[in-house]
Amino acid sequence: MHAVKRVEIIANSSELAKILEGLNAAGAPGYTVIRNVTGKGIMGNISDDEVTTLSNVYVLCYCAEDKIKPIVEAIRPILNKFGGVCYVSDAMEIRSVRCVSHL
Fold first, then answer.
1. CB neighbour list of residue 40: distance below 8 Å, 6 or more residues apart
2. Residues 66, 13: Cα–Cα separation, whole Å
3. What are 54-97's pLDDT values in tens digits?
4. pLDDT tens sequence across 13-58
5. Which of 51, 24, 26, 45 is nearest to 34 (CA)?
6. Nearest-angstrom CA–CA distance, 103 and 101
């Protein structure tokens, strides 16, 4: 196992392209996108009654610690302008290529 950073972004789906462009430009090794995220935040409940351009997305990215600063610098202006949140936390990654190669 080795230490990595977990970046979680929740934002309006209309800003997804800009967020992914920022992650790519900052050198993020990859990401996962979950669309139509619902829940409750400081603005109240986010309904999942209908999928619209106002739906939220959840973007999850794991990266090395040295990639955090460029990622935050790329994402912060997007979230400041259009809204959304970003959390950075520690995580541990298990690299396991053996389980795939022995199938």
1. 46
2. 27
3. 789 999 999 999 999 999 999 999 999 888 999 999 999 987 66
4. 999 999 999 999 999 999 999 999 988 877 666 666 555 557 899 9
5. 51
6. 6
One DSSP character per residue, the chain reads: -EEEEEEEEEEEGGGHHHHHHHHHHTT----EEEEEE-EEETTEEE--SS--TT-EEEEEEEE-GGGHHHHHHHHHHHHHHH--EEEEEEEEE----HHHHT-
The answer to whether the beta carbons of residues 58 and 10 sit under 8 Å apart is yes
